[in-house]
Design goal:
The chain has 5 domains: 5-26 and 393-559, Multidrug efflux transporter AcrB transmembrane fold, CATH 1.20.1640; 33-102, Pdz3 Domain; 117-185 and 384-392, Alpha-Beta Plaits; 188-260; 261-377, no CATH class. The chain is built from 13 helices and 27 strands. The chain has helices at residues 9-25, 65-69, 112-115, 130-147, 175-182, 296-306, 361-377, 394-423, 426-449, 456-480, 491-519, 523-553, 555-559, and strands spanning 33-38, 53-57, 60-61, 76-82, 85-91, 98-102, 109-110, 117-124, 152-158, 164-171, 188-197, 202-207, 210-216, 221-223, 226-228, 233-236, 239-246, 250-259, 263-266, 277-282, 285-294, 311-313, 320-330, 333-341, 353-358, 384-392, 453-454. The strands form 6 sheets. Strands 11, 16, 17, 18, 22, 23 and 24 form a 7-stranded antiparallel sheet that branches. Strands 1, 2, 3, 4, 5 and 6 form a 6-stranded antiparallel sheet that branches. The longest helix has 31 residues, at 523-553.
Length: 567
């Protein structure tokens, strides 16, 4: 029998969408490895970016991680292809400085439930607006991009009471990385202590060209006619001061000359004559240093504070330094203390250097990049408190993935058995299976297109959507075959009646998903999005084509139906 199925626009639309979905999923394996991170001292830094694919290097095809790591001891001109582009880098010493992983089999992004990783829920320490929570998200994403955590996802969410949260997922990441890099507020301060010596309970605080009287009392000190106790703060000439300590002989007042808002840029890669960012081997491990650039306003504060300081000569190095160091703090923790060269006294210093060190090279690189990431992103507008943390190992993730696949196959077999028992028609069973698989492919293709991450909750939503689709298919078949018992409707009326039920059920389910979309936390939102996506694809693409095909498939049985004439 000649059906002419391929001439119907409904089936054509479905087939076109299927082809597009297959292209988006891209199930055909390609050569190459994916760049996961690039060290700032790598010869590839600034040439490649995280997420790019390397598929050829030095006349060799790159198909696995080992194909690229074999060049770890290579020096000289390195020719390679990344994302279809030919590039050259000069490797002066062994070590590529890049971390790569095997290219995924498809373009579908898998969540931490399936590949392992860490999920944390962070809560602001105070009530925040939607605008503030977006600022937090942007700052965290800047840290992620700088640090190279390509598989980290930052998502603002709300609970049913309207409380704001930040959820961070890192596939393959660790809780320690989140605690050290992302959960920190990142408040940066550069402080210089100033010593005031008392004679007869009186001293002088000199700031630039101005002098202020400091008087010692029994339990307080008086600065510029203001009584202050330990830890009190005050402002002179636009500079914030803090009373650190005082005795009958002297007082230590700390001036804040730099803050996070003053940082204009951070040196990520060493560029001789422009900026410094280096890692060097030291006697007790590895030492790193990198420059930051600050505003002229903060540099003028530095000049005013250091102008009248005394100098001394270091007997070990023979170099001349000011009597006070500059101390750099991050979230109240000291990260660097630097001697100030005497020739910088009274000068606007706009390029302070952050230094540090670790025993192991990998730890030193990680610490350097972490500090650079935090300083480059700036301080978060609000502090964050860790509410919950979940860690899944890669092996457990693989078990979840295998279990999800096994469950899907079992569900498909069970549903197929029930359908066959109900209708006893292979010509009904086969199209239903084909359409269920098609809906699966279309939904996965849509997820790949919008870069939606598929986790266990999303897979549950996918199964729910396909189950709803199967239920709709049963309603359509029942309405078409209704004439076997009730011969009161025409074929068009039967299909119209079936679709009224289908659209009504779809609208009800999507309406039920809306609260989860807007106030859902984590897994609930994934379930809601995948379910709604699958239902929309079914209603507008696959159900119309299925109804048309079933009309043709059941044509013989429909021809036997006799519609009684009406008077």
């Amino acid at each position: 029998m000649k059906f002419g199925l391929l001439k119907d626009w409904r089936l054509i639309l479905m087939l076109v969408c299927l082809v597009g979905a297959v292209i988006m999923i891209n199930p055909f394996s390609q050569a190459g490895v994916i760049i996961k991170s690039v060290s700032t001292d790598s010869p590839f830094y600034g040439v490649v970016t995280v997420g790019e694919r390397i598929d050829w290097a030095n006349e060799k095809t790159i198909s696995s991680v080992s194909d690229i790591t074999q060049f770890e001891n290579y020096t000289g001109i390195f020719r390679f292809m990344h994302n279809g582009k030919l590039d050259l880098v000069n490797i002066n010493e062994p070590g590529l400085g890049i971390n790569v992983d095997k290219k995924s089999f498809t373009n579908i992004q898998l969540g931490m439930d399936l590949v392992g990783g860490t999920r944390v829920l962070l809560k602001p320490t105070e009530n925040v607006t939607d605008e503030t929570i977006q600022q937090v998200k942007i700052a965290l994403e800047t840290r992620i991009n700088t640090y190279g955590l390509i598989e980290a996802v930052v998502q603002p969410i709300k609970d049913v009471s309207g409380n704001q949260y930040i959820q961070i997922e890192m596939a393959g990441g660790s809780r320690q990385e989140i605690d050290d890099l992302l959960a920190k507020q990142g408040e940066f301060e550069g402080k210089i202590p100033m010593l005031v010596t008392f004679e007869n309970s009186e001293g002088t605080l000199k700031i630039g060209d101005y002098s202020y009287d400091v008087i010692s009392h029994n339990e307080s000190i008086e600065v510029n006619n203001k009584l202050l106790s330990q830890n009190d703060t005050f402002v002179l000439d636009g500079i914030n001061f803090r009373v650190e300590n005082y005795t009958d002989e002297n007082a230590i007042l700390t001036a804040t000359v730099f803050s996070g808002e003053d940082i204009t840029s951070v040196c990520m890669q060493d560029q001789p004559g422009i900026c410094t960012s280096r890692l060097e081997q030291a006697s007790n491990g590895y030492k790193f240093m990198f420059q930051i650039f600050v505003t002229e306003t903060s540099a003028e504060k530095f000049a005013a504070v250091t102008k009248n300081m005394k100098a001394f000569v270091d007997p070990n190095s023979g170099e001349s330094y000011l009597e006070s160091k500059i101390y750099l703090y991050l979230d109240g923790n000291l990260i660097t203390s630097l001697g100030i060269a005497s020739d910088l006294a009274g000068k606007a210093y706009t390029q302070p250097v952050i230094t540090g060190g670790r025993e192991l090279k990998e730890d030193a690189i990680s610490e350097k990049l972490k500090l650079q990431s935090i300083l480059k992103s700036g301080a978060l507008p609000v502090g964050l408190t860790l509410i919950k943390a979940d860690e899944i190992t890669p092996s457990l993730g693989r078990e979840f993935k295998n279990a999800a696949m096994s469950t899907s196959i079992i569900v498909m077999l069970a549903v197929s058995s029930v359908i066959y028992i109900r209708y006893r028609r292979v010509k009904v069973l086969i199209p239903m299976i084909i359409w269920s698989v098609s809906e699966l492919v279309l939904t996965l293709g849509a997820a790949a297109m919008i870069h939606w991450t598929m986790d266990l909750a999303s897979i549950a939503g996918l199964i729910a959507a396909i189950g709803t689709g199967t239920n709709d298919q049963i309603m359509i078949i029942d309405e078409i075959l209704l004439g076997e018992k009730e011969k009161i409707y025409t074929l068009k009326q039967k299909v119209k009646k079936a679709f009224a039920i289908v659209f009504g059920a779809a609208a009800t389910i999507i309406a039920a998903m809306l609260p989860l979309l807007f106030i859902g936390i984590g897994v609930m939102k994934g379930f809601a999005i995948t379910t709604a996506l699958g239902i929309l694809i079914g209603v507008f693409i696959t159900r119309p084509a299925f109804a048309m095909v079933m009309e043709k498939v059941l044509d013989k049985e429909l021809n036997k139906m006799v519609v009684p004439k009406t008077n």
